[in-house]
Amino acid sequence: MQHSVPDPRELLEIAVRVARPAAQTAARMRAEGVAVAATKSTATDVVTAADRAVERQVVEALRVLRPDDAVLGEEYGDGGVDTARVRWILDPIDGTVNYLYGIDYYAVSLAAEVDGEVVAGVVRDAARGDEWTATRGGGAFRAGRRLTGSTETDLGRALVATGFGYDRDRRAHQGRVLAGMISHVRDIRRTGSAALDLCRVAEGVMDAYYEKGLAAWDLAAGGLVAQEAGLLVSGLNGAPAGPDLVIAAPPALYRPLHDRLADLDAAGGP
Ligand code: LIP
Question: Residue 214 CA: which ligand 1 atom is closest?
Fold first, then answer.
């Protein structure tokens, strides 16, 4: 059992050091050509050889740098029960369908959790090299600029990002929620990467975000970036952000967005 744990800033430095070459691998393999290696929950929930290669690269790098830590990755899981105080949470390529189709909007998302709380995270846009970082209590940054989210106060003028799952019954429910939301906001954006959506909302490039069905690896790093940018990140009715629903919004938009999502049963359905 690990006893002392490093400062979040040290964990962030390791996360950045590991994520950057991993993002380069993803971009290189994309340029070489990408094909479906397997499917997971449904026929459209795909994994590529690059997803697997990038995750192996990150896991091997962390094993050298932090041999006593645990790692939870989207493709290979967490390797069983562990007692480590530090756990790394990895989405090797968030935006896999974009990646498969050659749409240059995908990211490596890597967060460090200490005793169950995410304390450091990096999201790296593997196509453009943009990078968002955050430490718990230390703020969120992109290119040295502190992020503070959107100043929009009217939901009717808000540009809201969301996404949809891979299961057709869930997508049908999410479509009904979308139909009830779209007339209450400026517009909707569906980019295909939750991690990048959360970072863009932290940056104020979009005003708010919601999505049902995120896994820990979709949410961990980008959720910390959004929180450290001053956004409220949660589920519905006091629940934490998680698979049932993630809402990320500046304080002025949070309540009207939350209440509209509650009215639409956005956390419900399959
Ligand atoms: C994706 C998320 C996205 C969601 C997609 C998918 P993946 O993660 O980032 O927000 O709408 O359905 O879950 O599968 O590319 O790692």
Answer: 13
